[in-house]
């Protein structure tokens, strides 16, 4: 673990830190964001970078908040070999915090499902100011 990621521990709840910087996965069906339907923006729980909007959120039936498209330049991907078959993991392009995995079984227009850990996100309702993007220290 690098020094930059450990610096985030002071700014995050334990569960969020484990998901974002130790690549843990929260249990399906546990995030209140699964049921969030208001217009707004989903930001990285660590650095507050905007990642998704409500317009791209949909009910995937998986138990995790799911989106068919991130905001431009918001996420980066890498191949995850932790399971039997390789998967595509995505993370916040700014701080590197693990968000979830992207699959090719989503709805039109992209056909992609960005399956996100709810503890890795914060929802900001439309009309409320987005918090300033932050660094760990």
How many DSSP H or I helices? 2
Q: Architecture of the domain at 46-126, CATH level 2?
A: Beta Complex
The proportion of residues in beta strands is 25-35%
Mean pLDDT: 93
Structural class based on helices, strands and sheet pairing: mainly beta
**How much helical structure, as a percent, in the residues?**
10-25%
Give me the strand/helix succession: HHEEEEEEEEE
* Uncertain residue segments: none
Strand order in the sheet with the most strands:
3-4-8-7-6-5
CATH superfamily of the domain at 46-126, by name, is: Peptide methionine sulfoxide reductase
> What overall form do the CA principal axes indicate?
globular
CATH class of the domain at 46-126: Mainly Beta
- The whole-angstrom Rg is 14 Å
Q: How would a textbook summarize the main sheet? A: 6 strands, antiparallel
N-to-C CA distance: 16 Å
Strand segment count = 9
Q: Your description of this structure?
A:
This protein has 137 residues and is mainly β. The chain has a domain of 81 residues: Peptide methionine sulfoxide reductase (Metal Binding Protein, Guanine Nucleotide Exchange Factor, Chain A), CATH 2.170.150. It is 10% helix and 29% strand. The strands form two sheets. A six-stranded antiparallel sheet has the order 3-4-8-7-6-5. A hairpin with a 5-residue loop joins strand 1 and strand 2.
């Amino acid at each position: 673990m690098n020094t930059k990621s450990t610096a985030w521990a002071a700014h995050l709840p334990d569960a969020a830190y484990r998901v974002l910087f130790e690549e843990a996965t929260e249990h399906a069906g546990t995030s209140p964001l699964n049921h969030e339907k208001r217009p707004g923006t989903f930001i990285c729980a660590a650095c507050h970078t905007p990642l998704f909007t409500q317009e791209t959120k949909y009910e995937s039936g998986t138990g995790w908040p799911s989106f068919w498209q991130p905001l431009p330049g918001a996420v980066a991907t890498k191949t995850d070999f932790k399971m039997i078959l390789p998967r595509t993991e995505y993370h916040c392009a700014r701080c590197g915090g693990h968000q979830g995995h992207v699959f090719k079984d989503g709805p039109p227009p992209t056909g992609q499902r960005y399956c996100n850990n709810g503890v890795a996100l914060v929802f900001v309702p439309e009309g409320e100011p987005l918090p300033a993007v932050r660094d760990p220290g």
